[in-house]
Amino acid sequence: TGNQWGYGKDDGPSAWHKNYPIAEGDRQSPIDIVPNQARHDPNLGPIVLNYDHCTSINIANNGHSVVVEFEDSDDRSVIQGGPLDNPYRLKQFHFHWGGKGCHGSEHTVEGNSYDSELHLVHWNAVKFKTFQEAASAPDGLAVLGIFLETGDEHRWLHMITDALYTVKFKGSVTDFKGFNPKCLLPSSLHYWTYLGSLTTPPLHESVIWIVIKEPMIVSDKQLGKFRTLVFTGEEEDQRTRMENNFRPPQLLKGRKVRSSN
Ligand SMILES: COc1ccc(C[C@H]2SC(=S)NC2=O)c(OC)c1
Ligand SMILES: [Zn+2]
Fold first, then answer.
1. Count of CB atoms situated within 10 Å of the CB of 86
2. Is 200 in the pocket of ligand 1 (CB under 6 A)?
3. What span, in angstroms and rounded, lies between the C-alpha atoms of 170 and 233?
4. Atom of ligand 1 nearest to the CA of 141
5. Would you state the pLDDT for residue 67?
6. What is the ipTM of this complex?
7. Is 204 known to be catalytic?
8. pTM to 2 decimal places
9. How many CB atoms lie within 10 A of CB 42?
């Protein structure tokens, strides 16, 4: 049907502009970050995450990634500070990853990809009534991007990877209560920030990006479990392994990347 998009040869990132012309816009994401060209801005305060009362609801395979959704009917879990003028409510988080032995982050640093990238998606509920409304407004969303690098096993990621078998197929959703994503954060929250977009269709230019410099370390085995998911539904005869679900870096088009300390 019309707006079907994916990460394959014919429906992948290079074809998205046909149904979503904004793909060639002036504030598209991801980008390649060049640290020594990022402007250190002393006015950029620390990022503050208030996730202590967050309420995770479920974990789902939406045919593009694995997503954990949160209760966002009040300000129980918000991100604020840094480049943000308001608190932004946590809505969901999801991941992007590569194939076996291939890196799969969306943002790159001096041309280098990481193995994977976690996106914590937040929306500006001070200015907008719904997530959908915020998702198409210039200051509607704040996404916290965290790189994943393979090394030692991550002590908490198993809580997610142990649940992946329950959402193997597109359209599957299972309960996922009591998970606080604060356990996934690296020790330092130093970051780069810039104005960008959703990294999948509809590619709205509505994201204030906050990319954490320090990667979280996960094991090869843990990362491999993401590749047991498939893009396709249980009823489809064609099973396509879910991997390489990342958009490559887009042109900076004059944007400035700022750096916290
Ligand atoms: C309002 O419609 C959408 C559509 C897709 C995503 C997820 C994309 S955007 C991102 S960043 N990484 C992703 O995979 C949304 O997330 C905010 C919102
Ligand atoms: Zn994402």
1. 13
2. yes
3. 5
4. 17
5. 99
6. 0.97
7. no
8. 0.98
9. 7
Rounded-to-integer distance, Cα 25 and Cα 30, Å: 12
pLDDT at 261: 80
pLDDT per position as a tens digit, 154-170: 999 999 999 999 999 99
Distances (CA, A) of 83 to 27, 44, 46, 139, 236: 17, 6, 9, 11, 44
Identify the active-site residue in 17, 53, 64, 107: 64
Give the whole-angstrom CA distance, residue 89 versus residue 78: 4
DSSP secondary structure of 183-249: GG--S---EEEEEE--SSTT--S-EEEEEESSPEEE-HHHHHHHTT-BSS-TT-S---B-----PPP
Burial class (CB in 10 A: 0-12, 13-18, 19+), 51: middle
Ligand 1, atom 11, residue with closest C-alpha = 198
Sign of CA dihedral 96, 133, 52, 209: positive
253: left (phi over 0), alpha (psi -120 to 50) or beta: left
**CA distance linking residue 75 with residue 89, whole number of Å:** 6
Residue type at position 11: D
Helices (H), 4-74: 16-19
Q: Residue 1's pLDDT is what?
A: 57
Distance (Å, rounded) from C-alpha 246 to C-alpha 223? 15
